[in-house]
Amino acid sequence: MSAQQTSPSDDHAPGFRAIRFNIDWITRPLFGIILGVITLGMVIYGAGAAALFFGLGLILAALEWHRCVGEGADHLPEVAVTAATIGVCESVMLSDGFWAALFVVAVGTAASLVLSLRYSKHPYWQAAGTPYLALPALSLVALCAAPHGSLIVIGLLLIVWATDTGALICGNLIGGPRLAPKLSPGKTWAGTIGGSVLAALVFAFYIGNFLGGSMLPALAFGFFFSFIAHGGDLAESLVKRRFGIKNSGSLIPGHGGVLDRLDSTLAAAPVLALLVFAAHFDPLFGVHA
Q1: What is the mean pLDDT of residues 213-226?
Q2: pLDDT exceeds 80 at position 238
Q3: pLDDT of 54-96, one tens digit each?
Q4: Is there a contact between 33 and 210 (Cβ–Cβ < 8 Å)?
């Protein structure tokens, strides 16, 4: 579905009346399905395959991040540091070294900051890209390597994808008051709530009908956790607004850049990892207890 034409000074989106057919109606769902199938396949195949796939995606996102905060200039040294940090922390995590992997992220962030202070126009933004991308990489690999990890990560991805899809559809069809007109004029309250409702329904169906678990707690978790995904989307919007860009890139037809596609996951993965490993929360709600 096409994005609406919006203005930051307009506090209400027009809804379905503003919808006009364009090629995004075809490319967005087509490439979304293709990427979704590949991602699920890698997660199901195993932690090593998932680490390779997520690592590649996040390295491409690193290129976009450093270009965005560098105002269009390629900052290859910073990209190299971020890419190396992602790759090494994933490799260390696969060998069951969580704290060692976290240390790699800290060292990579420090190296990126030192390098950026010497050569970059926005050194702190450049350095922030390393933990922003490496911590989700570490979280996703740790979750994949956990008991029943593929089922946990699939649930996470379903919440994120349903949140994005529901927000897009409801925001375009219903319109209404904008969520944060100065920050992200395309987002509405209707889209936000619609995305959360769809996330709750999809996750409850996954837990209840696919895995045979209890649907009610899954419904509540899917709804509330979807707001983490919304937050990740808004965080990237903040960065893009700060540097005056619309999309982080154009690599994925109908979606924009890799960073645009991963923004919600970048927030959701570390939060879920904290819930699982620090709070001992069971996101499968006892299905395999």
Answers
A1: 95
A2: yes
A3: 999 999 999 999 999 988 777 888 999 999 999 999 999 998 7
A4: no
Amino acid at 52: L
Q: Residue 104 and residue 82: Cα distance in Å, rounded?
A: 11
Question: How many other C-beta atoms are found inside a 10 Å radius of the C-beta of residue 17?
Answer: 8
The model's pLDDT over 165-186, given as tens digits with 9 standing for 90+, comes to 999 888 888 878 888 877 777 7
Select from 27, 37, 22 the least CA-distant residue to 172. 22
Angle between helices 149-174 and 215-243 (to 10 degrees): 70
Amino acid letter, residue 148? H
Cβ burial of 96 (10 Å; 0-12, 13-18, 19+) is exposed
Strand partners, 184: 180
| Claim: this prediction has a pTM higher than 0.85 | yes
> CB of 167 within 8 A of CB of 267?
no
Residue type, 115: L
Look at residue 104 and tell me whether its pLDDT is greater than 90.
Answer: yes
Sign of CA dihedral 100, 102, 108, 110: negative
Give the bridge partners for 13, in sequence order.
Answer: 176
204 within 8 A of 255, measured Cβ to Cβ? no
CA 286 – CA 289 distance, rounded (Å): 5
What are the boundaries of each domain within the chain?
A: 46-145, 148-289
Question: Which residue type sits at 251?
Answer: L
Specify the 3-state DSSP secondary structure of 97. coil
CA distance 14 to 6: 9
Compute the average pLDDT of residues 174-202.
Answer: 87
Radius of gyration of the chain from Cα atoms?
A: 19
